[in-house]
Amino acid sequence: MSKKYAIGVDYGTESGRAVLVDLSDGTEVADHVTPYPHNVIDEKLPVSGVKLEYDWALQHPQDYIDVLTQSVPAVVRASGVDPADIIGLGIDFTACTMLPINKEGQPLCFEPALAANPHSWVKLWKHHAAQDEATLINEIAASRGEAFLPRYGGKISSEWMIAKVWQILNEAPEIYEQADRFLEATDWVVSQMTGQSEIVRNSCTAGYKSIWHKQDGYPSQDFFQALDPRLVDVAETKLRGDVVALGTKAGELTAAMAERMGLVAGTAIAVGNVDAHAAVPGVGVVTPGKLVMAMGTSICHMLLGTEEKEVEGMCGVVEDGIIPGYLGYEAGQSAVGDIFAWYVEQGVPAYVEKAAAEEGINVHEWLERHASAYKPGETGLLALDWWNGNRSVLVDTELNGLILGYSLLTKPEEIYRTLLEATAFGTRKIVDAFHSNGVEVEELYACGGLPQKNHLLMQIYADVTNREIKIADSKQTPALGAAMFGAVAAGADKGGYDSIVDAAKQMARVRKETFKPIAENVAVYEKLYQEYSKLHDYFGRGDNDVMKRLRSIREEARH
Ligand SMILES: Nc1ncnc2c1ncn2[C@@H]1O[C@H](COP(=O)(O)OP(=O)(O)O)[C@@H](O)[C@H]1O
Ligand SMILES: O=C(CO)[C@H](O)[C@H](O)COP(=O)(O)O
Prior knowledge:
Radius of gyration: 23 Å
Bound molecules: adenosine-5'-diphosphate, ribulose-5-phosphate
Strand content: 15-25%
CATH architecture of the largest domain: 2-Layer Sandwich
Structural class: alpha/beta
Distance between the termini: 67 Å
CATH class of the largest domain: Alpha Beta
Number of strands: 21
Strand order of the largest sheet: 15-16-14-13-19-20-21
Number of domains: 2
CATH topology of the largest domain: Nucleotidyltransferase, domain 5
Shape: globular
């Protein structure tokens, strides 16, 4: 049999990338990135120019198709591989990134009559405007003692499906009515490749983002009735569709899409997946005790376990949600790289930009270089990493960032170092929450853009968590994981694999160099972490709700 290949397509927050992978050993033969032409839509809608409210984040579904028709042919061309030898394709996506579709499976925002309504567009994972609905979901679920609530760390996030669907119903009932279904973008893109009229939903997004459970299904009609009588049958109507396990073949590539993507009709297409979750087998993790951090704009933390435990503020525990046969745990920080980007774009003085340009490096690299000269604790600064709210463990999108300890001598690189440290403390909260609740964390694995870009950051994470960190060898770990699922969808008979465990064994790699904790740094960071924890609880657990009061004052001032 000739060499076989699969393609993984990773849909990030600002771009999509395709990677063509050799199935014998996981070599990434070619990759290509397509930036989304419309990027994140957070100020005004395309064409109509309708202004968006604060906390909104939308996307254009056509951008996702462009990734398939640009990046996939590009990797096929660059590799010189015969498309007949590309036996499977898998995708992974940000989530919950959801959209309303019509009976024909097309996004409502494609209909000219609805395009000026912001609710007809894709709501990106970081759309945070459904907080009122999320707060009510949590109050009502807690008062009814709903069994699903502990599985989500006690709180359902405003980033997730039910809050977003309810926001649509409240603010645009006509869009809710006209929507044949609400769908994760990952499932929609798969349906566009397979051309199936029957939508296939994947168990990962259904479990983590739509409160679906392998045994119990969605929450009961009684629960939805208690939320809002208009939602009573939402699970049977707008969320209908078979939920199938990761690695399942969703269908086969249609002739029309095969032509546009430069592939062969009939290529196996795996059911959709989440970016962070696909990265777990991508880094070779298929057993418990190993926490995988997908580090980029945000961080998602994934961990496997054998028993269902309650962990404060985790995003969820889903049976088979990451690797079949295990309970998959997820937690996260909704801004990490985004915080560093904010500082680089909004906070640095002109002399830093000039010095970086003169040295031929970017501003991040300049700040990292200069921040590395400081010892832990030497800046005298401490920050709370809540620039985009707190996903775990507080699950509160209405919290904001804070930096303490400024003086007239404070330097930009000290602030940058403090922001790196703050995100590491946020991760430490998550590691401690799992470990102290019986879901052991022995080792850390890191993938995504940040580990490659910033060594200081990784050393700080090792010191703050006091754990060794292994780094993925692949620069495109979620895409590699997605390609593995594509190979599983194709199956061993066709030259793929019968299970994701088999695929990971052959195809995943970590680098030889690891980041090990340095004892003297660990000791200082332990002290700083205790201070971080005090601030965290003071501003985050209700002792002082000043952040929320400032938000209300801001809202009043804006209207
Ligand atoms: N040298 C750097 N150090 C720290 N963060 C960086 C550096 N360069 C870029 N970033 C951040 O990396 C993030 C992008 O991460 P990446 O993994 O490439 O993307 P995504 O999360 O969209 O998949 C941005 O938020 C950016 O601010
Ligand atoms: O919540 C998620 C996964 O569960 C999002 O997909 C994620 O936070 C966005 O990730 P990225 O940093 O790759 O843009």
